[in-house]
Fold these 2 entries.
Entry 1:
Amino acid sequence: MDRELVFELPNDLQCIEEAVEFVVGRCGGCVAAAEKLRFNFRVSLTEALANAMIYGNGRDPSKRVRVEMRMRSRALRVRVTDQGHGFDADTVPDPTRPENLECPGGRGIFLMRKLMDEVRYNERGNAVTLTLHLPESGPIRREASA
Amino acid sequence: MAFEVNREGDVVVIDVDGQLIVGNRQELKQMILDQVEEGERKFLVDFTRTGYIDSSGLGVLVSLSKKIREKGGELRLSTLNEDLRTLFELTKLDTLFRIADSREEGLKDF
């Protein structure tokens, strides 16, 4: 079953938790990927939205964040786009190096890359696409009926 | 998300109910910093009722731990579920914190 969802968020950190639950609720659940949807996807989408609002849009309340979710039989993809100038995600230092371990920040992109199957930025660096591969055998069902 | 604060002897125990993420991490930070200012030095944050933590939540725990250590105290963590424990292992933050399997174990020898 194909599903698509597109919406925009105000640049407000307080909206993130509700937006994440909204997306998770609308994409339903693939039984075999339920664990990854429950934790990995929630954490990763939270990171993507926070980065878009804080670094991409520079906390500017007049800006917005666009969310596009596309669920196909084999993959769940979510693209998060901000209105900023973009950045090079490959320049972010490894937060697990001893000298970075006590830094309060710098773990967001690292966590997305560890928790999702694919993380891709566009060339400009203002949009990130998170992909979770869905197991072939997992029947789709609505989360509410779980 | 809500916090429940209790005292066990000279240890301040904080239960995190819900998610510890970018939208609410400042509440936890300010609450613990206020307690540090009042002279408290031993803190145990319990995650029995926590769903997930993002990098901002992890960052707040790191900065609080450092601040409390500088004051001669300690911040411990307890009762992380398998997902949360994986998060600490992936980021190697399990090497920075004393992480107990239960609240009781976290309070032991504090």
Note: The helical segments of chain B are 25-37, 55-70, 82-90, 103-107.
Entry 2:
Amino acid sequence: MTLSPPAHTTASAASAPAPSAPAPPAPAVPIAARAVTLPFPFPADQYRYGTNVEAAPKFVATEAGGWGARVLDIDADYASELAERARIVQRDPSRCQTLEHMRPAVWDTITTLLPILATEYPDLMAYTRDGRHCTWRNDLLGLSLEFTVGDDSSLGVDPLEFISGQIQDDIAILDEREGALWLDAGVVTFAADWCLGFDVGMRFAEIHGPVPRVHGERIVSRAEQFLMHLQPGETFRRTNWSMTVDRRLDTSTDVYPEWGRDRRLIEDDPNFADRMHLRVEVQHLIRLPTSGAILFLVRTYLISLAEIATVPAWRERVGRVLEELPEDMAEYKGLTRFRHQAADWLLAP
Amino acid sequence: MSAVLADTVPPLVSTPPIPNALSLTLTSVVDLTSQIRAFTLRAPNGAVLPEFVPGSHILVRCGERTNAYSLTGSGVHPLEYTISVLRLPGGAGGSTALHALPLGTTVQVSRPRSAFAPVATAKHHLLIAAGIGITPMLSHLAAARDWNRSVSLLYSYRPGTAAHLDEARGFGIDDLVESTTREQFRRTLEQRLRSQPVGTHLYICGPQGFTDAVLLAAAEAGWPDKRVHYELFGAATLDPGAPFTVRLARSARSVPVAAGQSLLEALEAVGTAVLNLCRRGICGECALPVLAGKPQHRDLYLSPEGKAANDTMMCCVSRGHENELELDL
């Protein structure tokens, strides 16, 4: 496998797909490394909520490169993001919670994700299973261990914490009962303006209560119905997005005092385009095979406006989306203070 | 759904191939009783098969028919799928054709489908099975053993015809009650329905008449619907229904549906292809978007909320009233 190059380097323009004729003028600056593999979330100049789900994995070519060939994406930020997650969970244990009835689903998560990792990164990871006895090797972490499915002590650490230490994605596990989905386990350290401590044990529909527009349009109930009809082994994905000041993955409501004020202070910052980031989430939805729970993975990517601007088509597309976004949606996403400034910067000639 | 689906399908209609099917080899056939035969299916290369949720079933293609059968083994890392099939000699060929398969036959089966899962938050699981209805309970019992769940099994059977009896006894559950007469079962049921810990969930599988009787008894004993789960099997023929007409909005056509004919069949008859699989209202493949009118829902696929929304219908079993139904076709 190849890991994406570190953020401070730039990819050569040659790694982008060949332009279609007639060839546009060569870009003024090389495409930023983070752009090459970014799951660019805007198919049009206007953004609205929808149940934008598709089967996964599936490679999608973008103006800068492409993404999506794997379910679990590991990139150059693997080590630093896992270290940050470990720090956050240690400081605030409420970020990692398993309601008692979810233990089988957590083990189901482990025995589902480890073989996916081993298949997608065969040079770096290996998984074997014989009945309940498993082996796991992860060269990126220098890890090699044996464990028994269902035996928490064989991992030496909380099972959910263990699996969240192998992947960059946040994890939420939804139990299905009474014709609804319930968020009953998860490790959420890179949440965009929500927190597990508040939402754990809640119904899917309750969690989405504050989202504007989606209820009138029955999007949440349709999404919930869709999820409940997922069959074992089926994997789907969707993207979502927001904006964040600086490369801050943890914008959960737990630590709002640490990041909320940046939304105001950014306005006058001369480094606005370097500090203001588009935040893209790729969410994978997997029906776990033996527990029947729904595994919800959220992989978060941050890319600055300056980096976006290295891809001319994106510069204009993101600018148009931010300019046009209805006020209630901008308000919910927390963009009100700076989105016009961001749009103006991107659309400036 | 442990036994027969295809025996009620009109004999001239063949069901389409199973999409995304697994090709498995029939490696073992064992007669459990004079009428019930157990089949073991394995991957030709011995690979691990897709895992499954307790209570799951697979669709099995045999000849021109597709039947659904409960998986009787554990869903954890399975090297084989096992099903038990009750032969219904009067049927249209589903079970009889399966019983005739020789060892080594390659059989097309679907990936496991979950429609009768244990509820993770239940404080206690009360399983109630009659006859071949024991089959989906076996994977429930295996999971209960693996995760140390509290479980009771009431198993009702006629003497000498009980499949999987030794296996059910072998799980070593504290509370297994066998009944061999209706009266014995009725008394056991009455007593058990009124003496369960708070938070118990009830799971029922058996013939329609049996299931209806247990559902009624549970309702009379005050059980809320949300704690009662059941899976039907057997030749419960849907009534033929009254004739009706549907309007197809996109093609601006009207299609008449006769009594005894399904909407799916009527659409096929006028050359409108609709994806479908089980043709029995279980798999969800033939869902059609409804623009106007109230479908008469008869499927086992849509949730109560899904039915109440009246924006989707399973055209293999569900019908309309007179001429009010309009479809997005």
Note: Chain A is about 30% helix and 20% strand.
